[in-house]
Amino acid sequence: MQQSSSVKLWVNLVIVYVVWGSTFLGVRYAIEVLPPLLTNAIRFLLGGIVFFLFTLLRGYSVPSLRQWLSAAWIGMLLSGVGNCAVAYAIGFMPTGLVALLVATLPGWMVGLDYYFFGKQKPSWLTVVGLGVGLVGMYILLNPADSLAQREIPLFPAFLVFVGSITWAWGSLQSPYLDMPPQMQTTAIQMLGGGVFSLLMSLFLEPGGFTKMADMTTQTYLALAYLIVMGSFIGYSAYVWLLHHAPPSLTATYAYVNPVVAMILGRIIVSEKLSTRSLIASGVVLTGVILITFGRRASNRAAKVS
């Protein structure tokens, strides 16, 4: 029984590693035609509706209003704000670098968890990791240089950081809320994120729906991949991990996804990174790994005490 649970844990972890690493490329293909916020809305609204209907066919009852609101709130933070920021940023920089910015998630989780949730003091290894990560981000964003010399635009990068903060908050808050069964939680979270994305698209992307007439076979395939693999399979695996795996282990996807995204971006669409970006990537990922191992050490120390 324990072995079966361990296998399920690692299967879900690998799904999040690989599938979510590949969705950055899927978003890039979709936004070649569609606006980014509308892309996110279509992805999660369709996915959420189909998935919720599937749960009803499986015999699930309709959740209570409190459970609906809890799941929709977390969905707005994760698939709404978080994924809208990512979709927007992919229009301005290589997918691998967007994934790298998202990799700051464990750092945000450490800070938010300490100040608002667990009140657990970060270990020295975590603090070192945060410092290393900040150095890497400074190298990557290059804020002291002129706009002409800067490889990454600061505003899209800032939005990704905002999305990562909301994602971290939602991930930490989720276990404390009254949620429906896991499958319905996934469906309602997708619906919450989809509704938020649709409202933002209507407000910020006037005329965005007219772009749907220009959708190509590639656009449809990209959306299908994002809905089936990124939402149904990847998002379901992530929700399962939130409730069955230590947060420090779940957060490891943040430094695997950028590697997957960079490899796929290089092989499939020939994305090239400068020497500065490659050095910064290595420094940031080193910091993320130190943060993750530091959180594990803190958790073990807390259990012992």
How would you characterize the overall build of this protein?
By secondary structure, the protein is mainly alpha-helical. It has one domain (2-304). Helix content is 78%, strand content 0%. It has twelve helices and no strands. It has helices at residues 2-30, 36-57, 65-90, 95-102, 105-117, 124-141, 154-173, 182-204, 217-244, 247-250, 253-269, 275-304. Helix 1 crosses helix 4 (95-102), helix 1 (2-30) packs across helix 11 and helix 2 (36-57) runs antiparallel to helix 8. The longest helix is centred in the C-terminal third of the chain and has 30 residues, at 275-304. It starts with a helix and ends with a helix. The mean pLDDT is 86.
List keywords for this structure.
mainly alpha, 305 residues, single chain, 0% strand
The pLDDT mean sits at 86
Order of helices and strands: HHHHHHHHHHHH
Structural class: mainly alpha
Q: Termini separation (Å)?
A: 29 Å
Number of strands: 0
Computed Rg: 19 Å
Shape: globular
SS element count, helices: 12
Low-confidence stretches: none
Helix content: over 70%
Counted up, domains total 1
Strand content: under 5%
